[in-house]
Each structure stands twice: as structure tokens, then as C-alpha cells.
Amino acid sequence: MNQAIRFHETGGPEVLRWETVEVPAPASGEVTLRHHSVGLNYIDTYHRSGLYPVPLPSGIGLEAAGEVTAVGEGVTELRVGDRVAYAGGPLGAYAQHRNMPADRLVKLPEGISYEQGAAMMLQGMTAQYLLRRTYRVQAGDTVLIHAAAGGVGLIVCQWAKALGATVIGTVGSEEKAELARAHGCDHAILYNREKFADRVREITGGKGVPVVYDSIGKDTFMDSLSCLRPRGLMVTYGNASGPVAPFDPGLLAKMGSLFLTRPTLFGYTAEREDLVAMAQDLFEVVGSGKVKIEVRQRYPLAEAAQAHRDLEARKTTGSTVLEPF
Ligand code: NDP
Asked: Signal peptide span per the entry (predicted)?
């Protein structure tokens, strides 16, 4: 019997239901997985709330790690028993078992547990493209990352530090500031108490930073722009506080010929070659010990609604996994 979380209408965490879902034999190009660990991500709340509309009823979740239990026709690179992980593909990771397109999976290296795999794929590959592709961080750069104690945040802080950057991070509490500092954040700013844009100017001697990684959206967008040095890059990649309001691009000219991008992980991993290279880079930086994956919350998968409540109430730090069994 396979149990999974599904939702039939959009809304608060209460719309998430624990249901029995049949898993057919894998179609051509697919494999069946038995999940050992499922990743919780902020994007799951956007699907659930309707901010990112999906056809209903729907499964939910984009990230998990598990073992291959059946292989469909035409799948040559995977066998029953292989340990794999993924971030992306069709919704439905909040499940005990499921079918997945084989070309969205990567094999987990020996030293990486299922739990680490489920915790790191989505947030870690996001950190990979943010720091290595969207803006290639160089030693000596000073970068600003919002929600520095969050899932993506803790990974970005450690990785940026390992690349030789000075890391400025914003956080919602003193405890989160401490956690961010322990993970490579040189300057933790409590953005509820002080104007982060003023502090960034102060820290950079008035110059501003070459790149801002902003996952907060509505509440921080404008102030983030004003942290940039001339021709700096604004990377708006999330909406934890709500989506950014439409604005006049002329503003980018007035504020210093700024660049603006709105990337998604799935735009960077659409080609299998990129997916594999990004996962490889992530596994290497984690394997080297430069980036530690901090699983700081665990919930039974059946209690995914509580995990969503805590995530949206800013109660979680680092990564969170859901346990399917
Ligand atoms: P986090 O663990 O970072 O959780 C979100 C954090 O955002 C909170 O803990 C909180 O930290 C901060 N926050 C600020 N304002 C609010 C608010 N009004 N409501 C809730 N939280 C708020 O989540 P993830 O690591 O999973 O994701 C981080 C962000 O990155 C999300 O916005 C997500 O959508 C985005 N993302 C984008 C991707 C992409 O490719 N575009 C891929 C992966 C993630 P604090 O209290 O310190 O302010």
C-alpha cells in the first residue's frame, strides 16, 4: 500500500491530505522508487497556496532520495537497488513510492546518506547555480544573501565563504544570526531591527555589493536594489514574503545601470548534462567538508502540514526532511 500527500484545492496547510495512491508499473523511461527521505522546500508552499498554480488534484513535492525498485523499458543507466536522488520533475515527492523519469535522477555517492540527499538536492543545486552560474563569485567579492539561516541560506553562506567571498546575510532573529555566523556568514544583519541597505553600505565602505541573492521578494526587493554597486546584479529567486510588485525598468538605470534576473533551478537543470554537472559539483563540495548539510527538522511525511506551518512561520532553520516510513 502506498501513502502520499495530495491536495484537491489550494489554501493553507490544512488542504494537505494523506491518501492512498496506486503506483503502476514504470512506463518506458521511468523507474519506480521507494523513498527513504523527502525534502521540504519553500516552493512546496507556493504550489499548495496557489501562488504557483498547478492542475488539481495534485501531488506535491519536488525532492527526495530513495532506492530503485523497478525499471521501465529503455532505462539503461539504472538498476534495481541503485541509490538515487532528485530535485525537479513532476510534482509528487511527498510519497512513500512513486515513478520518476530516469533522466531526472542522479546516483547518490557512497558517502552521502539518503537523508542528506533529500535535504541537499534542491537547495544545494540552487546554491550551485546562484554562486557558480548566475553570478560567478570570485575570491574577494562581498555578497548579500537574504534568509541566511534558511535551507538555501546556510548552504550559500558556507559555499560562498569557501570561494573566498565576504558574506553578508540577513536573518530574522539573534539565534539565526548565530547559526549563520557559524556557517560562514561574516556579517549577520537582523533585518527586522535595522535597515539592511544602510548596514550593507556601511560594511562595504559605501560601495555596495556586486550581487544580491534575494529570496524574500516583496518586502526586500527595493532595498536589495539599493545595496548594489553600479552594474551590480540583482538575483530575485523567491517570494517568501510575497511576489515582487511590477516596477518600471527605468529604475535600474537610475540606480546604477543594474542587472536583474529572476532564475529558477529548473531553468538551469533542464538539460541533463547541466543537472549532472551541478549535482557533481554539489557532491564534491559536500564531500570535501567545505559545505555541511544541516538537517535541523524532521517530520513524519504524514505530518507535512505541520512542516509547512513551521516553515511559513519562520520557525525552521537549515534544511528539513519528511520521513515517509
Ligand atoms: P528557507 O529555509 O529559507 O525559509 C524561508 C525563510 O525566509 C524563513 O525562514 C525566513 O527567515 C525568511 N522570510 C522572510 N520573510 C518571510 C515571510 N514573510 N514569511 C516566511 N519567511 C520569510 O526556505 P528555502 O531554503 O526552502 O527557500 C528559500 C527561498 O529560496 C524561498 O523563497 C524559495 O522559494 C527560494 N528558492 C528558489 C529557487 C529558485 O531556483 N528560484 C530554488 C530554491 C529555493 P528569517 O526569519 O531569517 O527572515
From this structure: none
- Determine contact, residues 45/97, Cβ cutoff 8 Å: no
Average pLDDT over residues 274-278: 98
Phi-psi region of 116 (alpha: psi -120 to 50; beta: other; left: phi over 0): alpha
Q: Which CATH class is domain 3-121+272-323?
A: alpha beta
Topology adopted by domain 139-262: Rossmann fold (3.40.50)
Angle at 34 between CA 33 and CA 35, to 5 degrees: 105
Contact 160, 187 (CB under 8 A): no
Instruction: Give the pLDDT mean for 86-91.
Output: 97
Q: How many other C-beta atoms can be found within 10 angstroms of the C-beta atom of residue 63?
A: 28
Mutate to test the pocket of ligand 1, among 38, 41, 42, 133 (most ligand atoms within 8 A of CB): 42
139 alpha carbon – ligand 1 mean position (Å): 26
Ligand 1 close to Cβ of residue 149 (< 6 A): yes
* Residue 24 alpha carbon to ligand 1 centre in Å: 35
For the Cβ of 232 lying below 6 angstroms from any atom of ligand 1, the answer is: no
- The whole-number average pLDDT for the span 237-242 is 97
What is the model's pLDDT at position 72?
A: 98
- Grid coordinates belonging to 292: 555541511
Question: What are the residue ranges spanned by the domains of the chain?
Answer: 3-121+272-323, 139-262
Report how far residue 103's alpha carbon sits from residue 123's, in angstroms, rounded to the nearest whole number: 20
pTM: 0.98
Instruction: Please provide the average confidence, as pLDDT, over all residues in the chain.
Output: 98
Give residue 240 CA to ligand 1 midpoint distance, Å.
5
pLDDT band at 1 (very low <50, low <70, confident <90, very high): confident
**Under a CB-based contact definition with an 8 Å cutoff, are residues 283 and 290 in contact?**
no
Q: Whose CA is nearest to atom 12 of ligand 1?
A: 147
